[in-house]
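Notes from the 1:1 (GR / supervisor)

We went over the backlog. Supervisor wanted to see one worked example end to end before approving the batch request, so GR pasted a single chain during the call. The sequence is below; no edits were made to it. Supervisor asked that the structure be written out right there so they could see what the output format looks like.
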Amino acid sequence: ELWSKSADLGSFKGHLSLALAYYYGDGVGTDIVKAKYHFELAAIGGDDYARYSLGVLEYNQTGNYDRATKHWMISAMRG
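Structure output shown during the call:
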């Protein structure tokens, strides 16, 4: 609930926390669509781990290897 409030207030760390919770089903049901949404918002906010995680999601869930590689390259270039 606090992560949701944090994300609603524009916290990119809040979006990352929600994304990880939805991806792993930690305290909520696993929901890959919601996980991707929150990873994207956190990545837009400049979170490198969220960008990396988007690559993992694309690789493992959709099989979109080109897109996964792009996410990983952006994450690596940012540090």
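Supervisor's comment: The chain has a mean pLDDT of 89.
Batch request approved.
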